[in-house]
Amino acid sequence: MDYRGVNPARARTTPGTATSLSTEFRGAAVWWTSVVRENSQGQQGAHTRQCQRLTFHKHDRYLVVDEYLPHVRRKGHEILFSNHRRRRLYTNNKSGDSFQINYRAWSYTDFDHPTTFDMSAMDTAKKREIIDDLDASIYRRAGKPWKRGYLLYSPPGTGKSTMIAAMTNYLDYDIYDVELTVVKDNNNLHRLLIETTSKSIIVIEHIDCCLDGLTSPATARRHASTEVPP
Fold this sequence. Notes:
- By secondary structure, this protein is an alpha/beta fold.
- The protein has two domains: about 1-80, no CATH class; about 85-225, Rossmann fold, CATH 3.40.50.
- It contains seven helices and eight strands.
- The protein is globular and about 65 Å long.
- One of its GO terms (molecular function) is ATP binding.
- It holds the Pfam family AAA.
- This is ATPase AAA-type core domain-containing protein.
């Protein structure tokens, strides 16, 4: 985020690259502008970066810097960690692009899936067992780290993604969906895992195919059909 004290009448944005809104704080008018910055080649693409520009009158500088910005940060923190915060679904970017200055390991979108354990069609006893296993209160009281790993194995369309969504909504965690086919090496994978948050679910789909150097179940079937035993 950058901010500047200027005459708002002089502020200009390129059509199609920014959206703006105005508000007021204790009598001071401020303008927020969402700006998409172009990459080094001067073209918009996968490596553009979005930032927020704050514009205000110079005579309101101390009010904005000393009171308004801390107010914005405080409210943002409350929203982020409230019970009604939006959960996020992260996907990893191609590791070959990591040399870019503005490279980010993860991209995200809001995760809005309605599934809960109450809606899941599964054995009641097994459902209760999973919910009890997701209870981290005992570990927190003992001061021990709480981690869980689940291997979901079944034919397509039988509820694996639904189970992950139910766990996410129950724990109020974000999801990091790791696509191993775009991970260059172990160092890149290590970097991805380091940049995940503590309250998150890490999902690796089709891990059996990826470990064999394959890219998808369809590829696995194709390889299986073309291999001839000695």
